[in-house]
Design goal:
This protein has strands at 3-7, 10-13, 18-25, 34-39, 46-51, 58-60, 68-72, 78-83, 92-98, 101-102, 106-111. The chain is an all-beta fold. Strands 2, 4, 5, 6, 9, 10 and 11 form a seven-stranded mixed sheet that branches. The protein is globular.
Length: 112
């Protein structure tokens, strides 16, 4: 059974940093397109940062460029999202995704 467990969310002041983690069981992020999505209150879920289907190239949404970095650990079982210079507009539930699987989400709240 594939399972993703996210952690690292929380409350942070604007300008601060957080690192989200997504630990997978029964799955290796190296083998699939994967990434982080976010859903702000009242909005649709949107892609934030991801690996391509080759699982090599990375892409970042416009709001994430220059501030967020997606990476994996050496064994490919944990995926991270390093978020710097956080802004109140980054407040959302962040979900990790790989192939057809989703994590449960972790709340990120950025205060002024």
């Amino acid at each position: 059974e594939v399972q993703f467990v996210e952690s690292g969310g929380g409350l942070v002041q604007a300008g601060g940093s957080l690192r989200l983690s997504c630990a997978a069981s029964g799955f290796t992020f190296d083998d699939y397109a994967s990434g982080w999505f976010r859903q702000a209150p009242g909005k649709e879920r949107e892609g934030d940062s991801c690996y391509s289907s080759s699982a090599v190239d990375t892409y970042h949404g416009d709001s994430a460029k220059g501030r967020f970095t997606i990476y994996r650990d050496a064994d490919g079982n944990t995926m991270y999202l390093q978020m710097n210079a956080l802004e109140p507009d980054d407040t959302a539930v962040y979900y990790c995704h790989g192939d057809v699987y989703w994590g449960q989400g972790t709340q990120v709240t950025v205060s002024l």
